[in-house]
Each structure stands twice: as C-alpha cells, then as structure tokens.
Amino acid sequence: MKKCLRLLVLTSLFLMISACSSEAGSTNHSSQGEDKIEEVNQSAEQSIKVDKKLLNVEVTLPAMFVEKGEEMGEVLKLTDEDKENGISKKVENADGSITFTMSKAKHKEMLQEMQTGAEDVINELLNDENFTSFKELTFDKKLRNLKVSVDREAFENSFDGFGVLGLVFYSLFYQVLDGRTEEEIQMDVTYIDVLNQEVFDTARFPDDIKNSDNEMVEENQ
C-alpha cells in the first residue's frame, strides 16, 4: 500500500501544482522607484528562488514540481484572467522550471491559504467517517513536520494512509512559495500509535517518491 500511496502523491502533486501555477493571482501593481531586493536563496539551476521586491515577488518552481506534457503550453499562457488577478509573467526556464511573478500581497495571501487549507484538510480527516483511524494530526508552523496519531490496528488494516495526500501537497507547495531550495524541501510524517504513543512508521516526501520511482525502474529492467 505504501508504494501505491507514494505514486499517487507524485501524480497528485504534478496535477495540483500545475493548476495552481495557472490559476493563482491577485491585483498587480507597477514597481515605483528603486526596488529593494532581499536575496532569500541562491543555489544551483533547479533551486527555488524567491526575490522579494517592493511590490512584486518572483517564484521559481523547480522542474521536479512541473508537470511534463502537452499541457505545459496552456500553463505558460498569460490569460486575461491571469492579468486581472495580477499575474504579470510566466516563464519556462531552460532547466524545465517555471518562474512566475505576482504581487507581494498575493504571495503573502497564498502562504496563508496554504496554512488554512492544511488546517481544513486535517479537520476533514478527523471528522470523515471514511477515515476512522485518525485521532490527531498536527503540523508545525512551516508545514514541514506532520505528526499523525492513529488507532494503529485500524490504520494498518485500511487505506487511511491515502488521507495524507492533500497534506503533502500543501506542505511542499508552501515550501516552494516560502523560498526553500529544492534540496531543502521536505515533509516528514511521523505515525504514532495512540494507545502507547510509540512511533511505528515514518515517511519523508519527496524523497520517498524518488525512491519509489527508482525501485520501479529497477523492477522494469
């Protein structure tokens, strides 16, 4: 089940992040005077670089988070809706990453939306009759560490593990917006038996996704 979960996480991330790249936006403002640039991160070609200016923010999604295929052309088009919502530029880079520009206000709003969205998913999981094993789910402030307290027996005999998919998306995309480099982006999940408070399993994304891909390649050779 764990391998299926990781593969589904990968597919879901590609689809959802591409959708966010094409739909996100807010009111755009022209920069006036000299931009004040704070270099948040500098790294190799596939790093995530967030240049915080006076009014605009440039966010670069590394190639590993960009869906490949014919839809890329549609994602890169600057639509009338994008312009109305303040997205002023979307560019595909040579390494396959995508840089888009939004207002600083929208950037802050999207970070808050990621946190609120994660909280909503947690509440839904705890109140969904289809996910009965979950007892408590807690994120840290930066959405990097998730602790999942469950009825272990019920959890291991169900597909409740798929419930964390949405939280993986919110965590990784939040970190992209927050300016972390590709090497820094990670989400650690700790599964805890609610009966004795013992840790019985852990997962790390996106590392586990990459490992699953490598295993599939080896199996197919």
TrEMBL record:
Q: Which superkingdom is the protein from?
A: Bacteria
Keywords, ordered alphabetically = Signal
| Signal sequence region | 1-24
- Can you name the source organism? Enterococcus eurekensis
Q: What is this protein called?
A: Antigen I/II N-terminal domain-containing protein
